[in-house]
Design a protein that fits this description.
Blueprint lengths: L24 E6 L12 E6 L2 E6 L10 E8 L8 E6 L15 E6 L3 E6 L11 E5 L8 E6 L4 E5 L6 E4 L12 E5 L8 E6 L11 E6 L2 E5 L19 E5 L8 E6 L17 E6 L6 E8 L17 E5 L8 E6 L4 E5 L13 E4 L9 E5 L2 E6 L4 E5 L16 E5 L7 E2 L1
Antiparallel strand pairs: 1-2, 1-28, 2-3, 4-5, 5-6, 6-7, 8-9, 9-10, 10-11, 12-13, 13-14, 14-15, 16-17, 17-18, 18-19, 20-21, 21-22, 22-23, 24-25, 25-26, 26-27
Bound molecules: calcium ion (4 copies).
Length: about 425
């Protein structure tokens, strides 16, 4: 039996201390949760410093909305408190259930005030399928980038009264432009850049995937065709299906990890169905992301075994798990029910030294979502509806900071733990 979630009225948001000054805000989506009898309406559970807090739902849950399709935390109003943006990519105003949604995004300011962000009109835009927060104009507050891959656009909220549209220049609607988003200060000038994944994009081959960097009016396109970017471009690689930024060598320039979950390492791969998977990492520099510094990571060089359905790189997260000032890279391998952690170092960035493979329960899609919160690693296992916590501990040098043993933090239904922030 699947227990539905009962939506409470607004009071669940009052009396809650705003998450000011805490790095421990964690949001866990269950996008297929039944809410007020509405199947797959979706819900989001809030944790503060790993204490379970309120369940957030829409005021008007409808079947198939998928509230919690994407999550992003940031300080959107610049008051020093962490705010939370929640996508509901399959929301429709009209009776269009079953088709791709038009989508809507809700922003919770300090968890006490809500704003609904919508696109005008109707259509299958899937607005809110991906979200990322960053200070894109350098004025101190975060902007919210909102992916609408069904329409092939990305929108930026927080610069002026209107949404700013970033178009998929010269691309096709099947590119899934905006299916993944990240921000980072890759050139170290104090302002974040926006990176946009288009894992379905065709350059020479179908579905090889591209990543577009947007820095003010400047745009740069990256793919496995780009000189210096390692990896062989093949059909259905899905380069850009996941994105995460972090400073792996602590040089003050963010570095970019790009998931390529469809990457085949075996000549017998059935294209389109599977991939052993890879992650390309491009390091930042004073002139921004420098493709000549790209590394390609696969399980051929790491703990674990690369198998054709692993999809290494389906999910990515970064954070300093061992407390030495550089970020570690966390890679989800849901086909293997495992998560890989690569330590960062000041002397060259990511290393395979002491790289860690964390095994999870079988058949759980363990690693479909990963996050770093409050210096700890959090891993979702959505088909079992379980969430696990691995505590970070200080050990300076090329160490992952976490071990193979974690603790179950919480359980839920409706693909609980499919999206984390
Ligand atoms: Ca800003
Ligand atoms: Ca910058
Ligand atoms: Ca760096
Ligand atoms: Ca570190």
């Amino acid at each position: 039996m699947i227990l539905g979630v009962v939506a409470l009225a607004i009071p669940l948001l009052t009396g809650l201390a705003p998450a000011c000054g805490t790095a421990g805000l964690l949001a866990v989506a269950q996008p297929y949760a039944t809410v007020d009898g509405q199947v797959r309406a979706g819900a989001v559970r809030i944790f503060t410093d790993f204490e379970e807090g309120p369940l957030i739902t829409q005021d008007d849950p409808e079947p198939g909305d998928m509230f919690g399709s994407a999550l992003a935390t940031g300080d959107f109003d610049g008051d020093g408190c962490t705010d939370l943006a929640i996508g509901a990519s399959e929301e429709d105003d009209g009776p269009l259930n079953g088709a791709d949604g038009h989508g809507v995004v809700e922003i919770l300011y300090g968890l006490t005030r809500r704003e609904t962000v919508k696109l005008p009109g109707s259509g299958g835009d899937r607005f809110g399928a991906a979200l990322a927060a960053g200070d894109l104009d350098g004025d101190g507050d975060d902007e919210l980038a909102i992916g609408a891959p069904g329409g092939g656009n990305v929108y930026v909220h927080g610069q002026g009264r209107k949404l700013r549209r970033v178009k998929n220049d010269g691309g096709a609607v099947t590119d899934q432009f905006g299916e993944a988003l990240a921000t980072g200060d890759f050139d170290g000038d104090g302002t974040d850049e926006l990176v946009i994944g288009a894992p379905g994009a065709n350059l020479i081959r179908q579905g090889e995937g591209t990543v577009t960097l947007v820095d003010g009016k400047r745009r740069l396109l990256y793919s496995q065709e780009t000189y210096g970017v390692d990896g062989l471009s093949e059909s259905w690689d899905a380069f850009g299906a996941a994105l995460a930024s972090g400073d792996f060598n602590a040089d003050g320039h963010d570095d970019l990890a790009i998931g390529v979950p469809g990457e085949g390492l075996n000549p017998l791969q059935r294209a389109g169905d599977y991939g052993e998977g890879a992650v390309d990492v491009i390091y930042g520099s004073p002139s921004g992301l420098n493709p000549r510094t790209t590394e390609a990571w696969t399980q051929n060089a790491l703990a674990g075994e690369a198998v054709m359905y692993d999809r290494f790189g389906t999910s990515l997260a970064t954070g300093d798990l061992n407390g030495d000032g550089d970020d570690e890279l966390v890679v989800g391998v849901p086909g293997e029910n495992a998560v890989q952690v690569l330590p960062g170092t000041r002397t060259g960035g990511l290393t395979r030294n002491h790289n860690l493979l964390i095994p999870g329960p079988k058949g759980a899609e363990f690693g479909a979502a990963v996050a770093v919160a409050g210096g700890d690693l959090v891993i979702g296992a959505p088909t079992k509806g379980a969430l696990f916590r691995y505590r970070g501990s200080v050990r300076k040098g090329s160490y992952p900071g976490v071990g193979k043993k974690g603790e179950k933090l919480a359980e839920g239904d409706g693909f609980y733990g499919h999206v984390l922030s």
